[in-house]
Amino acid sequence: MIPKIVRLVRYQRLPLQQNRNMGVYYKSGALKAMPPVNAFGILGVFCTMVPGILLGALISKNIASFLEENDLFVPEDEDDD
Predict the structure, then answer these.
(1) CA dist., res. 66 & res. 72, Å (int)
(2) Which among 45, 37, 31, 69 has a CA at the least distance from the CA of 61?
(3) φ, ψ of residue 25 in degrees (nearest 5)
């Protein structure tokens, strides 16, 4: 009885695996067409990183000034006596 259960579990396809067709070849053996490639290269990296870094710096600067104005976080000067 256990070998029958093992056989059923081993060869049963999961719903996620049925829809996924990630192979390179068709069943006939022919190669599938190459998928479309969006090649932005280094320009795409800079167009993404530069605004992200600038926006992050602007937000952090505004939050730091808000915290200092409301005396929630004020750096104290250390006295060296």
Answers:
(1) 9
(2) 69
(3) -115, 150
The letter for the amino acid at 67 is: L
Tokens encoding 59: 């937000």
Tokens coding 6: 């093992």
d(CA 62, CA 54): 12
3-state secondary structure of 33: coil
Q: What is the distance between the terminal CA atoms of the chain, rounded to a whole angstrom?
A: 85
Q: Structure tokens of 1?
A: 């009885």
pLDDT in tens, 2-30: 666 666 555 555 554 444 556 888 888 89
Q: Interior CA angle at 68 toward 63 and 71, to 5°?
A: 125
State pTM to two decimals.
0.47
45: its two tokens: 């990296």
Tell the residue number behind the tokens 């104290």, with chain if given: 76
Report phi then psi at 20, rounded to 5: -85, 120
